[in-house]
Design brief:
With 330 residues, the protein is of the alpha/beta class. The protein is 33% helix and 24% strand. The strands form four sheets. Strands 1-7-6-4-5 form a five-stranded mixed beta sheet, sandwiched between helices. A four-stranded mixed beta sheet has the order 8-13-12-11, sandwiched between helices. Bound molecules: coenzyme A. The site of coenzyme A (COA) has 22 residues, from helix 2, helix 6, helix 8 and strand 12.
């Protein structure tokens, strides 16, 4: 079987910057509290005309450019988001149209913060078995239009931001590129981090009562999520290294999903990994869910934090609960 490699990366961040002090105007919070508990200084919010699909398409355009490919070269699209433009159809087909791709397959993945690695696993498999040569993997989120900006929603609202990232996965020699991907879930914790409404399990899907009860806003059991995240991040990183026969010392860079700076620090401490080996950009963007890893990857490439031959681990934890990792020989 041939290998699969990330051959291009791209990102798109909306130009509207929202610093912590702006949130102080809407809810009882403070720049100090947010920075202390999460590391976040500012995030980006979409403006009129920007959506998960439009941002995803822009990020994908850049990833294709960096891969030296044109839209006709794309064989398949995997789009990860928890905030699709519409209930249906998904964002993958919208991007197929926006980029003028051939009539290729377009799949949407709904695995929240782990969505990008789940999507990467699909791309990796399709390329490795020789089904397709170039798979576009996109992670994009719009949180800002669905957050509770009253004090009641402050624990969740201050964390999340909007943005998109994309990669192109193409063929490589066996043993280089994506060495493997590991995905997990534990659905019994679905309601510890979720957004219930609108819901097809309710008739009507959204009602005055649901709106009054704020069931259309995300709910998060913060402490619970924190504890599980530290445990699962650590486990799934170790799983990737062990299965590929590497030790922690072999790792050049860990790019974790940007959930919360304190989670990344706790994971590094737990594993015994020096913090210089852990990439972080949550200060600028907050938690952008499925978009956070491809945005981080693109910045790492641009800043020279990863170079050919480096051993890089991507890891995530989020709603579901879901958690995942990918080990890449860059
Ligand atoms: N601004 C100011 N105060 C806030 C606040 C905000 N944005 N959000 C919550 N608080 C208050 C709480 O109401 C509470 O007040 P009280 O003591 O008067 O009741 C106090 O701060 C402490 O709240 P608590 O929830 O115990 O804080 P915490 O140390 O657990 O931090 C999180 C809260 C959300 C930052 C933390 O639990 C966390 O990071 N969880 C994981 C979140 C995450 O990463 N989610 C994404 C996963 S992919």
């Amino acid at each position: 079987m041939r290998g699969a490699r990330i051959i291009g990366t791209g990102r798109y961040l909306p130009s509207r910057v929202v610093p912590n002090v702006e949130l102080e105007n809407y809810m009882d919070t403070s720049d100090e509290w947010i920075q202390q508990r999460t590391g976040i200084k500012e995030r980006r919010y979409v403006q009129e005309g920007e959506s998960s699909a439009t941002m995803g398409a822009e990020a994908a355009r850049k990833a294709l450019e960096k891969a030296g490919l044109s839209p006709e070269d794309v064989d398949f699209v995997v789009f990860a988001t928890l905030s699709p433009d519409y209930f249906f159809p998904g964002c993958g087909v919208l991007v197929q149209d926006m980029l003028g791709l051939r009539e290729v397959g377009a799949l949407d993945v709904r695995n929240q913060c782990s969505g990008f690695i789940y999507a990467l696993q699909v791309a990796e498999s399709l390329v490795k078995v020789g089904r397709y040569d170039h798979v576009l993997v996109i992670g994009a989120e719009v949180h800002s239009t669905g957050l509770d900006f009253s004090t009641e929603g402050r624990d969740v609202t201050v964390i999340f931001g909007d943005g998109a990232g994309a990669v192109v996965v193409g063929p490589s020699d066996p043993g280089e590129g994506i060495l493997g991907t590991w995905t997990h879930s534990e659905g019994k914790y679905a309601k510890q981090l979720w957004c219930e409404a609108p819901s097809s399990a309710c008739n009507p899907r959204i009602s005055e009562e649901m709106l009054r009860e704020r069931r259309h806003f995300p709910y998060m059991n913060g402490r619970y999520v924190f504890t599980h995240a530290v445990k699962r991040f650590s486990e799934v990183i170790s799983e990737a290294l062990e299965e590929c026969g590497y030790a922690l010392e072999d790792l050049d860079l860990l790019i974790p999903h940007q959930a919360n700076l304190r989670i990344s620090q706790a994971v590094a401490k737990n594993l015994g990994l020096s913090e210089e080996k852990v990439f972080s950009n949550i200060q600028k963007y907050g938690n952008t869910t499925a978009a956070s890893i491809p945005i981080a990857l693109d910045e790492c490439v641009e800043e020279g934090r990863v170079s050919r031959g480096d051993l890089v681990c991507l890891a995530s934890f989020g709603s579901g609960f879901t958690w995942a990792s990918a080990l890449v020989r860059w």
